[in-house]
Amino acid sequence: MQADAADLGLTIYISSGFRSYDYQAGLYQRYVERDGKEAADRYSARPGYSEHQSGLAFDLNTITDDFKDTDEGRWVAENCYKYGFIIRYPADKEDVTGYMYEPWHIRYLGTEIAEDVYSSGLCLEEYLGITSEYAE
Ligand SMILES: [Zn+2]
């Protein structure tokens, strides 16, 4: 995917990939201390719940909303399914995923399922018929 993007003059790099439990715990704790638990839960997973701990999720380039308006962000949104990835937390799905829109966060599902999810217009929770709410 990086190579194909590079052929088009686009630069895609991984800002955050695999995270250990301890790393996620520290990250989440810092966000809770800074913004409070309710706010942190909208953009950061509690330790043990982050897709980054699975090794199947990647944050690309700048981890900001501006990424969606870059050539790279647009290309990723339109093409990542061809490489087995989906935009895991789409716009307008926060009530289902529990997460704010994250144009930079992609999740590997394999090409077959990723294409199916992409063309369905559903987020992963809707596609699988599951909830990602914490039990509390
Ligand atoms: Zn992420």
| Structural class based on helices, strands and sheet pairing | alpha+beta
**Low-pLDDT regions:** none
Order the strands across the largest sheet as they lie in space: 1-2-4-3
Give the averaged pLDDT, no decimals.
97
- Elements, N to C (H/E): HEHHEHEHEHH
CATH architecture of the largest domain: 2-Layer Sandwich
The number of domains is 2
Please, how many helices?
7
Q: From the alpha carbons, calculate the radius of gyration and give it in angstroms.
A: 15 Å
| Main sheet record | 4 strands, antiparallel
The share of residues in helices is 25-40%
Here the CATH topology of the largest domain equals Muramoyl-pentapeptide Carboxypeptidase, domain 2
Share of residues in strands: 5-15%
Describe this structure in words.
With 136 residues, the chain is an alpha+beta fold. The protein folds into two domains: 1-12 and 64-136, Muramoyl-pentapeptide Carboxypeptidase, domain 2, CATH 3.30.1380; 18-54. 39% of the residues lie in helices and 10% in strands. It has seven helices and four strands. Strands 1-2-4-3 form a four-stranded antiparallel beta sheet. The longest helix has 15 residues, at 21-35. The protein is globular, with a radius of gyration of 15 Å. It binds zinc ion. Zinc ion is lined by residues 16, 52, 57, 59, 105. The site of zinc ion has 5 residues, from strand 2.
Secondary structure: elements and pairs:
Elements: H1 2-7, E1 14-16, H2 21-35, H3 37-40, E2 57-60, H4 71-79, E3 85-87, H5 94-97, E4 105-108, H6 111-120, H7 124-128
Antiparallel strand pairs: 1-2, 2-4, 3-4
The structure holds zinc ion.
